Amino acid sequence: MKLALAGINHRTAPVQIREQLAFRSEEIPTALLDIQAHGAKEALILSTCNRVEVTATLDAGMTVDQLFDSVLNYRPGITLEALRPHFYVFEERDAIRHLFRVASSLDSMIVGEPQILGQLKQAYSQAKEQGAIGNVLDAVLTRAFTVAKRIRTETEIGESAVSVSYAAVELAREIFGSLNGKRVLIIGAGKMSEGTARHLLRAGASDIWITNRTAQRAREVAAMFGGQVIAYDQFPQRLSATDIVIASSGSPDSVITTEMVRRAIEHRRNQPMFLIDIAVPRNVAPEVNRIEHAFVYDLDDLQRLAERNLQTRREVAQQAESIVEEEVVRLEAKLRERGAAPTILSLQEQFEAIRRDVLDRYRSRLGPLSATQEEALEGLTKGIINKIAHGPISEIRRHAAEQTTEDARQGELIHAVRRIFRLGDR
């Protein structure tokens, strides 16, 4: 059997192609059955917004093109030829390496993001429920999960914020330590402020206040977070009770002035205030940054932090890639040993059958034997058989364990042993 993976992702195909090939969760069971009907022994489909990949163990007569073609049975309007410029194919070691990199988020749009591991685990569980996971894919995928955990544990690949929203949360933590119980005021109700508020809530912020020139939009955003709407002309009075301000209104002028913040800081008895200005033009007067205990970061500040952290993740990724290579070699050796096991077992069974047959034929000539003699005879014949079997079995195991052994060479050795000792198919 051959391990193969074929797919498209955010680097090889535009969203228009990816969405045509993408699978809804309820479509996957039928697709897995169809892939197996075309000749795959085992199969798994990973379908996310950024990638669609099919991993399978193939019979000798099934090609990777046939594997991908079987997937397209459920995708009218898209052909294998249309996909060919966009899809990639990995086999054996390269397929294992790719799955390890995917699980560890090294192949993600944002290196270090945690979602892909959960998505791969879900794909594995779904395929297993359908009976599409056998010994090979089970070994590869469970090892992929272990590799991902090891990389998270041994490197800092997921530690630093790499989006503007996450960068805002990271800065807020630096200012306040803990965000538990912190109150957030959103001025304006754009998509970026939504994302920032969502991350702040997850980090422990408690109350969300929303104000917007259009009251209806403020109510919509408040409903998302269980927040409270504040009349637009009333928000300056709330500043003194606010720990974190997210400013993203469409106003061409500053909506938060130096005087507003100075009064708020005085009422807060010099407790810090964090102002996230993600509006263009900026909503917070530049002079606010000169006020002690007021910390203002604009979009460029957050973007620079995110880019710096992203570069850090890229550097850490090199360390993670070394772990992947180490684990690929380890799993390959394990799979090779597993592939050699049936031949070793057949050889042992063959020798034991010969020993028993010869012993039974000559036993009558030996006359009555004592228990001690019977034990000695068993030990003698088993010892001879073990000596004979030791050479070929050791050679098979050595080739299986060698990291440099090529599959073709390993196959030739197995074939030769089975032919010499006339072992049947297993």
Task: For the structure shown, list the relevant keywords.
single chain, 426 residues, alpha/beta, Beta Polymerase, domain 2, Rossmann fold, 6-stranded parallel beta sheet, 4-stranded antiparallel beta sheet
What's the CATH first level of the largest domain?
Alpha Beta
* Unreliably modeled segments: none
Helix content: 55-70%
The CATH superfamily of the largest domain is Glutamyl-tRNA reductase, N-terminal domain
**CATH fold category name of the largest domain:** Beta Polymerase, domain 2
Shape label: elongated
Widest β-sheet, arrangement of strands: 7-6-5-8-9-10
Distance between the termini: 13 Å
Q: Give me the strand/helix succession.
A: EHHEEHHEHHHHEHEHEHEHEEHHH
Return the average pLDDT rounded to an integer: 86
Question: What does the model show?
Answer:
Helix content is 55%, strand content 12%. The chain folds into three domains: 158 residues, Beta Polymerase, domain 2 (2-Layer Sandwich), CATH 3.30.460.30; 143 residues, Rossmann fold (3-Layer(aba) Sandwich); 80 residues, no CATH class. It contains 15 helices and ten strands. It is α/β, with parallel strands linked by helices. The strands form two sheets. Strands 7-6-5-8-9-10 form a six-stranded parallel sheet. The chain has a four-stranded antiparallel sheet with strand order 2-3-1-4. Helix 5 crosses helix 7, helix 13 packs antiparallel against helix 14 and helix 14 packs antiparallel against helix 15.
